[in-house]
């Protein structure tokens, strides 16, 4: 999982000029979450109990679902191409892994052996989801650079403090998240055709009342 986390961080760094967009912010947040889960398996980090681990995994799945929504909006701006097809193929896998992770987190356990097996299953599914998210971020970066797609807008931030479980967003903070706005750069837009005299006539609302007198 640490390797996937490092790959995610490296990919996010490629987005320096898009540093304020939702995809980068969510990728970095999810990277921090997965790293905390990795540290837990080593007996280190802010997650101290299995309850902390499962809570973190649940927030991780929530962030992945939000990432799915953000990238889906981004994909509308990507022209039909092989790159867009690759992006959509990865994108459709995210909800499946999110649902599977959420099911594992909520599954009841009794006894140490069952809890150990649940921890192992949650970590494994988180790795699989993290792997798809890393691929998704790469695919988004490829599309954004090739088709010169700009981003405007950002999400509500969250600064983690030492010992905090990253991802504990309040409902009020979540409700203040602004919507993402993606757009093509001017160089990629279609030129606006000048209006014909007939179009100008219709835009003006036709003849004025005085002309009919």
Describe this structure as you would to a colleague:
The protein has 213 residues and is mainly alpha-helical. Helix content is 60%, strand content 4%. The chain has eight helices and two strands. A two-stranded antiparallel ribbon has the order 1-2. Helix 3 (50-75) runs antiparallel to helix 5 (94-106). It is elongated and about 55 Å long.
Q: What is the strand tally?
A: 2
Radius of gyration: 23 Å
Distance between the termini: 80 Å
Question: Which shape, going by the Cα principal axes?
Answer: elongated
CATH fold topology of the domain at 1-147: Four Helix Bundle (Hemerythrin (Met), subunit A)
Strand content: under 5%
Which descriptors apply to this entry?
213 residues; mainly alpha; Four Helix Bundle (Hemerythrin (Met), subunit A); 8 helices; disordered C terminus
Write a brief structural summary:
This protein is mainly α.
Please describe the topology of this protein:
Blueprint lengths: L1 H12 L8 H20 L8 H26 L6 H10 L2 H13 L5 H35 L2 E4 L18 H5 L5 E4 L12 H7 L10
Antiparallel strand pairs: 1-2
Helix pairs in contact: 1-2, 1-6, 2-3, 2-6, 3-4, 3-5, 3-6, 4-6, 5-6
GO molecular function: actin filament binding
Subcellular location: Cytoplasm
InterPro entries: Alpha-catenin/vinculin-like_sf (IPR036723), CTNNAL1 (IPR030045), Vinculin/catenin (IPR006077)
